[in-house]
Write a structure and sequence with these properties.
The strands form 2 sheets. Strands 8-7-6-9-10-12-11 form a 7-stranded mixed β-sheet, sandwiched between helices. The protein has a 5-stranded antiparallel β-sheet with strand order 1-2-3-4-5, with helices on one face. The protein is about 30% helix and about 30% strand.
């Protein structure tokens, strides 16, 4: 068992801002497994439900994961007129897949995750993950996303990338070269969305990633997602498309569909792209055109 289960609290330190940490009281240890790629830890946390962490960083907390997965998946999906074929890179916990499958237009989802043991661990312990990842529309490939995407051309309407921009293990998923390959794998009108770090804690990283997207696409943006269990309480996503703007839905969600959600709506889609003045001031200093 992981040493954290003997300490009473799971504590996540911040890799970008030393001296800051976030702790959750552990009510019950569930699993700890060292795979070929990660140290995976699952426990029941006070006020959080099941918590899933990788290499000491929280990935999913049961009570607020809907905020992240709904906003990431549906903001990207509604920025496309009718996504049928989708690629999720690093989506082994199944949350994005679960949300994407709610769109009737979706015909097929490729999930590429380099850690097969991690996928199986999530299937076993995380509610809803097995059902999503074993859906007949979903194919899982255990492979590094950098290798998976190489040479693919005009295959996908939508590509979503999960991977930390400040974690050396996932660095390749935020590189200019990988993102350029992803763009080549998009069909005309395709949308690419990728984790880009918190605008609060990782401002310069998020802005640098935004610049990559601006250079790649005719239309791009950075939107924020509030997630209390994440370090700093938020994260951000870069998104781009060559054919149209991405900061508003280009098709309107059905009312019944939206009523089934807890975080995403067309209003939230647009509001998520509104950023505070300090972001724009730092953007000017970095030579990045403000939103």
């Amino acid at each position: 068992m992981s040493g954290i289960f003997q300490e009473g609290y799971f504590t996540e330190t911040n890799p970008v801002l030393p001296g800051r940490a976030f702790s959750i009281k552990i009510l019950e240890p569930i699993a700890a497994e060292e795979t070929d790629c990660h140290l995976a830890e699952i426990f029941r946390g006070e006020g959080c439900g099941l918590v899933f962490a990788l290499d000491g960083r929280i990935q999913v907390a049961q009570n607020d994961e809907f905020m992240y997965h709904e906003m990431f998946a549906h903001t990207a999906a509604y920025a496309h007129e009718s996504p049928e074929n989708i690629l999720v890179v690093g989506g082994g916990n199944g949350g994005l897949v679960r949300e994407l499958l709610k769109h009737p237009c979706v015909e097929h989802i490729d999930v590429c995750d380099k850690d097969g043991a991690l996928v199986e661990l999530c299937k076993k312990h995380l509610p809803g993950t097995r059902k999503a990842l074993e859906n007949f529309k979903v194919d899982i490939t255990v492979m590094d996303g950098v290798d998976f995407i190489r040479g693919k051309r005009c295959c996908y309407d939508l590509i979503l990338i999960e991977g930390s921009v400040h974690d050396g293990k996932d660095k390749g998923l935020s590189s200019k070269e990988f993102l350029a390959e992803c763009k080549l794998a998009l069909k005309p009108g395709g949308v690419l969305a990728s984790q880009a770090g918190s605008h609060i804690l990782h401002t310069e990283i998020a802005l640098s990633q935004s610049l990559v997207f601006r250079n790649l696409f005719n239309y791009s943006g950075y939107f924020t997602i509030t997630v209390p269990s994440f370090s700093g309480g938020s994260t951000g996503i870069c998104i781009g498309c060559d054919e149209h703007e991405v900061n508003r839905p280009i098709r309107m969600p059905f009312r019944r569909f939206v009523r089934s959600l807890k975080a995403y709506s067309s209003v939230m889609h647009k509001a998520a792209f509104v950023l505070p003045p300090f972001w724009n001031k730092i953007a000017v200093k970095m030579g990045v055109e403000a939103e």
